[in-house]
Design a protein that fits this description.
This protein is an alpha+beta fold. The protein has six helices and seven strands, in the order H-H-H-H-E-E-E-H-H-E-E-E-E. The protein has helices at residues 2-18, 30-42, 48-58, 63-79, 111-117, 125-128, and strands at 87-90, 94-100, 106-109, 133-137, 143-149, 174-180, 190-192.
Length: 200
């Protein structure tokens, strides 16, 4: 299992970067579904123990998958010149939304996205129940992406190379958000989330 995760992670990394180099029409998003399905499998709790071994041996945790998903979406939107938006992708372990701002004062992710784009089949109910939220000032006519992860908190390690004897993990939901293309001077940003467990 360890070798499989390493191999699939490498393939995912390559796909995340190549998405921005190949002339793939983002509107034909069969490849998007495939990429996200692989990412979804890699952040499943079933391989929790494999990630812990990987972190201890290589220093690489499941947080790398968060980075690859963000990079893939960024490249996809960039390749479409901002025309690829108003899409949601719901998997068992992650919820991805690509949207565009309109007349607003703030963007609340994932709260606003659920209201606008919730699917009728209810497959995203686990994501709606998340209490985490990111609130950023609205930039008019700006494409943004957001991802909510269901179970990744237990497999994103905070271990550093100098402190691997301590098992430290994230104790709250993992959510990513980005304006596309990147805008780094947006303030203020308000992040709210529920702490899962108290440390003793």
């Amino acid at each position: 299992m360890f070798g499989d995760v390493v191999t699939v992670r490498s393939i995912l990394q390559k796909a995340a970067y190549e998405q921005g180099q190949n002339n793939i029409e983002p509107e034909r998003y069969t490849h998007v579904e495939s990429f996200l399905e692989v990412a979804n499998t890699l952040v499943d709790e079933k391989i929790d123990s494999t990630w812990k071994v990987l972190v201890n041996q290589t220093g690489t945790g499941a947080d790398s998958i968060v980075y690859f998903v963000d990079r893939f979406v960024f490249n996809m939107v960039k390749q479409s010149k901002g025309t690829f938006h108003n899409h949601t992708f719901t998997k068992s372990n992650l919820f991805v939304a690509i949207s565009k701002t309109s007349d607003c004062s703030n963007v609340n992710f994932p709260r606003d996205t659920f209201i606008e784009y919730r699917k009728d089949n209810g497959n995203d109910s686990w994501a709606i129940d998340r209490s985490g939220n990111i609130r950023v000032p609205c930039i008019e006519d700006q494409v943004y992406s957001g991802v909510v992860y269901r179970n990744i908190s237990s497999i994103v390690s905070l271990n550093s190379a100098s402190d691997r004897k301590w098992e430290k993990t994230v104790n709250a939901p993992v959510i990513s958000f980005a304006y596309l293309p990147n805008i780094t001077d947006v303030t203020p940003v308000k992040i709210s989330f529920q702490i899962y467990n108290r440390w003793s």
